[in-house]
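Summarise this fold before class:
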Amino acid sequence: MELFILLSILVIIFSTSIFFYYKKKPIQKSNSNTLYTEALNMLVRGDSDNAIRLLRDVVKQDTNHLDAYLQLGDILREQGNSQNAIKIHQSLTVRPGLDEKLQIQIHQSLAQDYLSINEISLAKKEAEMILNIDKKDSWATEFLLDLAEKDHNWGQAAQLIKTIEKNNKSDITRFARFKVYEGMEKFENEDRNGAEQCFNKAISSAPNFGLPHLHLGNLFSENRNLVKALEHWEQYALLDAENGSSVYSKIEAALFDLGRFSEVEKFYQRALKNNSENLDALAKIANVLEEKGERQKALEFVEDALNQHNDSIKLRLMKLKLSIQHASPPQLAQQIDRMIEIMTSHKE
């Protein structure tokens, strides 16, 4: 009987201990989650020092709170303490049973840790480990692309862009731009065939992108093939509205060398038809007309253009140039005063 009572008491004590053990554990976890939330709020408010203090309390209470470790390491890196950030993040990689999402987050943090101390090869390795887990991970691909750009590794950059476009259908000119850069590098290294192939690939991937035409034109010019050079310079001039005027002098020189100077005006007319706001082409047409001895026609052309672009200093300078031999000094002074007025008002 006494033995039965003793066993009953032991069972009650054991059951009570088990009950309080499991009851206490969730409370600790609940407390650590509350502290973690407070730490995130501190981060939002920019109080990283107190956020670190709270995160350290979290991991003391719950050594399995991996999100807290990740955040703690990230904050330390942002504060310039990358070595400690690396130690914290590396310690997470040996934890058993990590799901893929958490593995990717850890490698992301480590990649940024290594980049912050200029350990590029280690940063690259961490990003590649992410792609081993998920080959379509956009963060890792963009990270590697950024490293390739900084290293001027244009071939790798082009391949990475291909992957990004395949997965996300991004801007097609990005691939073309990197192929152009790769071609420029090959051209500098006297690999003209390789350069031409890169430029042509850029054109085939992005037909409306002007930059490869510029460099193909330069390449053919170096090879004394002015006909082909002219063809690509004209394409560049028509496709790149912002920078196309930079090759106008090359186009004029090529047409002159080919004995086709009469085609200069026709080219500028095409450029103007392609973009009616192209004031460079407008001014060039007026200049060609003047050189042909058609000064009055050139002046009328500029006057018509000024009706649409009244504040254009470029057109007013062209008008001044065409008026010098025929206008009176007061008329010329009036034109100059108008330009000064426009420039002053634009500064204000």
